Amino acid sequence: MTNLNNTKEKMTEIGTKLRLTRESIGISQECVAKMIGKNQSFISRVETGRHKLLVLELLDFCIVYKKPSSYFIGDSYDE
Predict the structure, then answer these.
(1) Residues 14, 72: contact at Cβ < 8 Å?
(2) 19: Cβ contacts below 8 Å, ≥ 6 apart
(3) How far apart are CA 17 and CA 37, in angstroms?
(4) How far apart are CA 32 and CA 39, in angstroms?
(5) Is the dihedral of CA 21, 5, 39, 41 positive or negative?
(6) What is the pTM assigned to this prediction?
(7) Number of neighbouring beta carbons within 10 Å of residue 17
(8) CA distances from residue 77 to 6, 12, 37, 47, 49 in whole angstroms, order as listed
């Protein structure tokens, strides 16, 4: 079972994966923000693990990056 006390660490891991994916496809935080209807500071907070990402927010990123949610959370929530 996952230790829920590691939430900050897990969000940082997911944020890092989101950042690396964004950088690998060559788009800016500003561009992603416009695509999902948020501001650039939101993207920064997500990528640095300072925002507890909601499922629907994660799905927005998945659509933009054309990746399944498991790509971002798979390793983060394995036992």
Answers:
(1) yes
(2) 47
(3) 20
(4) 9
(5) negative
(6) 0.87
(7) 20
(8) 10, 12, 27, 17, 15
